[in-house]
Amino acid sequence: MPRLANKVAIVTGGGSGFGASISTRFAAEGAKVVIADINTAGAESVAAQNPENIITQKVDVTSAEDWKTLVDTTVAKFGRLDILVNNAGTSYKNKPTLEVTEAEWERVFNVNVRSIFHGSQIVIGKLLEQGSGGSIINISSTGASRPRPGLVWYNASKGAVSNATKGLAAEYGPHNIRVNTVSPLLSGTGLFSQFTGMEDTPENREKFIGNVPLGRLTDPSDVANMCLYLASDEGSFVNGAEMIVDGGKCI
Q1: Helical pair 64-78 and 115-130, crossing angle rounded to 10 deg
Q2: Contact, 184 vs 143, CB < 8 A?
Q3: pTM
Q4: 229 in catalytic set
Q5: Which of 8, 58, 237, 248 has the greatest number of C-beta atoms within 10 Å?
Q6: Beta-carbon contacts of residue 31 (< 8 Å; ≥ 6 apart)
């Protein structure tokens, strides 16, 4: 039997990158998936790969009203909700912290933290109403526990995500609502320069990868595999954990 048979999942930011891989993997394992993304073209492209199991909903994850509509639509369509993956996130280009603008700071905290505040409030409310538990997976970053120069406020936003996850896990675990984080190293999906502050050249990639014991960047499938485990019954006793997916970089 597929590992997510009869499960219903919402994946934010599912139209590209990690979110696209999570969405397609969940659908392949039997879940009904709602991709919640402001990028409708990307979301529809992903959904077209498995139209029987994936639908899309245009969502601004910083909007409480959009979250309410998203959850109502999901339950109306599929009858229930079991899994939320808070994957949507943003950053600014790695640069000296004194050059970060207030607008950049605000956008990072709105997308990376406010979205999880709204999502948790509304989704946990629905899971409590259903009374059958559920799994919430927040995509954080290795920067949450190993912050580095140049992305101070991005790392701080992800630190908030990881900390809030543990508090939610402790508070709602008695209701069989599990809340965990997945913290990946950066991937090769066009964001190398933004996150490292270096030009994306073979030489700079080799320099970065030289500090990764397993010798490569994160593949989106690495994150999807971990999320699948946490969403499935196989992860039924994992709660409040931070699952580092970084090839040993943070050792």
Answers
A1: 30
A2: no
A3: 0.96
A4: no
A5: 8
A6: 2, 4, 5, 7, 8, 9, 53, 83, 231
* Cβ 174 vs Cβ 153: under 8 Å: no
Token code pair at residue 213: 């014991």
> 114: phi > 0 → left, psi -120 to 50 → alpha, else beta; which?
alpha
- pLDDT band with cut points at 50, 70 and 90 for residue 190: low
Give the number of other Cβ atoms within 10 Å of residue 177's Cβ.
22
CA atoms within 13 A on the CB side of 201: 6
Q: Torsions phi, psi of 160, nearest 5?
A: -65, -40
**Phi, psi for 250 (deg, rounded to 5):** -90, 5
Find how far residue 244's CA is from the centre of its chain.
13
The token pair that represents 117 in the structure block: 């505040």
**Is 24:93 a contact under the CB 8 Å cutoff?**
no
Please give the Cα distance from 103 to 109 (Å, whole number). Answer: 10
Residues listed for the chain: 251
What residue type is 243 in one-letter code?
Answer: M
| Residue (of 183, 177, 184, 159) closest to 239 by Cα position | 177
Task: Scan for tokens 């908030």, then name that residue.
Answer: 160
